Amino acid sequence: SQTIHQWPATLVQPVGSPLSLECTVEGTSNPNLYWYRQAAGRGLQLLFYSVGIGQISSEVPQNLSASRPQDRQFILSSKKLLLSDSGFYLCAWSPIHTSSYNEQFFGPGTRLTVL
Amino acid sequence: GQSLEQPSEVTAVEGAIVQINCTYQTSGFYGLSWYQQHDGGAPTFLSYNALDGLEETGRFSSFLSRSDSYGYLLLQELQMKDSASYFCAVMSRDSWGKLQFGAGTQVVVTP
Predict the structure, then answer these.
(1) Rounded to the nearest 5 degrees, what angle is found at the Cα of A107, between the Cα atoms of A103 and A111?
(2) Angle at Cα B61 formed by Cα B60 and Cα B66, nearest 5°?
């Protein structure tokens, strides 16, 4: 069966500090991978989307970046965090042969607070 | 562009029926999905509609009318554990492989 891991679960960082969040998927090959951010009480905002190693689509211009160094590893980074980067970060995957069904499977999330 | 609208909150008592509406505006529409998210947790998939009509999965049903750009999620025999946020999400030809999520509807179930 497939599983998706995210870490850390919670993170408190000062403004201007760097960020690295990691997501790994097990039990599947060539998944589509996604990074979302969710503000408190709000919907999911798609940040990055990847269909393969080194292939990243940025959905929202901001000071975040993403990388996919391995097939089942997706990393979200920032060089200098802003207060507005606070939120709940969710990684998700879907099967490579995406149909209109496109069921996405979410990781447990990282709650980031920037002070 | 794409937009989705759903109510922000619905309150109901245990055993009742709740309908969460979702209207969308999107070009190249393919299908409408529903996800459930408990407070502090990850979203989980509930249902999907690509064609007009009703899809039933246990106590939950989802409906789609493509001509009206409208769908709903029906929660029957409400239980306390159904207290959560529910999101509709659209898949479109213009953004293949990606979902556009609504802002979510918080369902509060009271005893």
Answers:
(1) 130
(2) 150
What's at B27, amino acid-wise?
S
| Other CB atoms within 10 Å distance of the CB of residue A79 | 11
Query: Cβ–Cβ of A100/B91 closer than 8 Å?
Result: yes
d(CA A61, CA A70): 24
Residues B52-110 have pLDDT tens digits of: 999 998 999 999 999 999 999 999 999 999 999 999 999 887 777 788 999 999 999 99
| Adjacent-strand bridge partners of A65 | A77
CA distance A31 to chain B (A): 11
Q: How far apart are CA B35 and CA B89, in angstroms?
A: 8
How many residues in total does chain A contain?
A: 115
Asked if residue A88 lies in contact with residue A21, where contact means CB atoms within 8 angstroms, the answer is: no
Q: Are strands A19-26 and A3-7 parallel, antiparallel or unpaired?
A: antiparallel
Compare CB distances from A106 to B42, B50, B102 and report the shortest one's residue. B42
3-state secondary structure of A12: strand
Q: Give the strand order in the sheet containing B18-25.
A: B3-5, B18-25, B70-75, B60-65, B53-57
Q: What is the pLDDT of residues B45-57, one digit of tens each?
A: 999 999 999 999 8
- Residue B35 CA neighbour count, 13 Å, CB half: 26
